[in-house]
Design brief:
The complex is a heterodimer.
Chain A lengths: L3 E2 L4 E5 L4 E7 L6 E7 L6 E7 L4 E4 L2 E6 L4 E6 L8 E8 L5 E3 L3 E6 L1
Chain B lengths: L3 E4 L2 E4 L5 E7 L5 E8 L3 E10 L2 E4 L6 E3 L9 E3 L8 E8 L7 E2 L3 E5 L1
Parallel strand pairs in B: 2-11
Antiparallel strand pairs in B: 1-3, 3-8, 4-5, 4-9, 5-6, 7-8, 9-10, 9-11
Classes of the chains: A mainly beta, B mainly beta.
C-alpha cells in the first residue's frame, strides 16, 4: 500500500523555465511533508519541507505547495538550472517518527 | 563533521549468508532509519529507531534485524541473504522525522 505516490517517473524542462513536480498521498495523519533530491551514487539530500498547518513554503528558487483537501503537494523550481537535473523524492511523516517516500521523479533540465 | 557513515560501500553475498551493514552518525540525532532503494519503488523503510533501545518496523522489515544500543550506531543485519535483497541500502538520521533526515552515501548489496 503506497501511501505516498509520485505518478510521473520523469519530467523534462527547458533551462530557465519552471519545473513542477507533483506528489499525492493517502494518509490524512501525515503532519510533515518533505522533498529530497538525489544524484546518482549519492544519498538523498534534504531540499525543503512543509508542515501540514501551512499551504506554502519558499526557499530561494524552491517553493512547496500543500493542498490538504486534495491530499496533494507540489514542488516548484524557478528558474530551472542544469544542476537541478536529479531524481526528486517526496516524503511524509506523522507523529515525528517514521518517514515514508514516494517512487521518485527524474527531472532533466535541457539547455 | 562526518555526518552519517555507512560501511561497506559495496558487498557481494551468496544466498544464505548473513552480514551486518554498519551505520554511524556523529550528530547526536535521536532518529535513525534504514531504507532500501529499488528501481521504480523509491525508498522503502525497513526499520527505524526513535532513540537508543527503541526500534520499530517499517514497510519491508522481513529478513532484516536491527538494534540500537547507542545513540550513534544503528546496524542492519541480514539474517539469511536472498537475491530479493539485492538493493542499495541507505541509513539516515535526524533530530526529528518532521525535519530533514541526513542520509549516508549508501551500501550497494548484491546477493547471488
Amino acid at each position: 500500500d503506497q501511501q505516498v505516490k509520485q505518478n510521473s517517473p520523469s519530467l523534462s524542462v527547458q533551462e530557465g523555465r519552471i519545473s513542477i513536480l507533483n506528489c499525492d498521498y493517502t494518509n490524512s495523519m501525515f503532519d510533515y511533508f518533505l522533498w529530497y533530491k538525489k544524484y546518482p551514487a549519492e544519498g538523498p539530500t534534504f531540499l525543503i519541507s512543509i508542515s501540514s498547518i501551512k499551504d506554502k513554503n519558499e526557499d530561494g528558487r524552491f517553493t512547496v505547495f500543500l493542498n490538504k483537501s486534495a491530499k496533494h503537494l507540489s514542488l516548484h523550481i524557478v528558474p530551472s538550472q542544469p544542476g537541478d537535473s536529479a531524481v526528486y523524492f517526496c516524503a511524509a511523516s506523522w507523529g515525528a517518527q517514521k518517514l515514508v517516500f514516494g517512487q521518485g521523479t527524474r527531472l532533466t533540465i535541457n539547455p | 563533521n562526518a555526518g552519517v557513515t555507512q560501511t561497506p560501500k559495496f558487498q557481494v553475498l551468496k544466498t544464505g549468508q548473513s552480514m551486518t551493514l554498519q551505520c554511524a552518525q556523529d550528530m547526536n540525532h535521536e532518529y535513525m532509519s534504514w531504507y532500501r532503494q529499488d528501481p521504480g519503488m523509491g525508498l522503502r523503510l525497513i526499520h527505524y529507531s526513535v532513540g537508543a533501545g527503541i526500534t520499530d518496523q517499517g514497510e519491508v522489515p522481513n529478513g532484516y534485524n536491527v538494534s540500537r544500543s547507542t545513540t550513534e550506531d544503528f546496524p542492519l543485519r541480514l539474517l539469511s541473504a536472498a537475491p530479493s535483497q539485492t538493493s542499495v541500502y541507505f541509513c539516515a538520521s535526524s533530530y526529528s522525522a518532521g525535519h530533514g533526515y541526513t542520509f549516508g552515501s549508501g551500501t550497494r548489496l548484491t546477493v547471488v
